[in-house]
What we know:
mainly alpha, 3 helices, 0% strand
Amino acid sequence: xxxxxxxxxxxxxxxxxxxxxxxxxxxxxxxxxxxxxxxxxxxxxxxxxxxxxxxxxxxxxxxxxx
Length: 66
């Protein structure tokens, strides 16, 4: 999702948008370093986003994890 698409969603659905700016790759990298992804067999990610956290979870999880 582009930055301008994100900004448009803030104005369109401001009561349901949980952030004022999209999460950066650096933030996603730091946060996913804190999660025990290497040992997890099942990973549940809550909430729709722009995909940056999902991308880092996929990079850091074990190949056989869900």
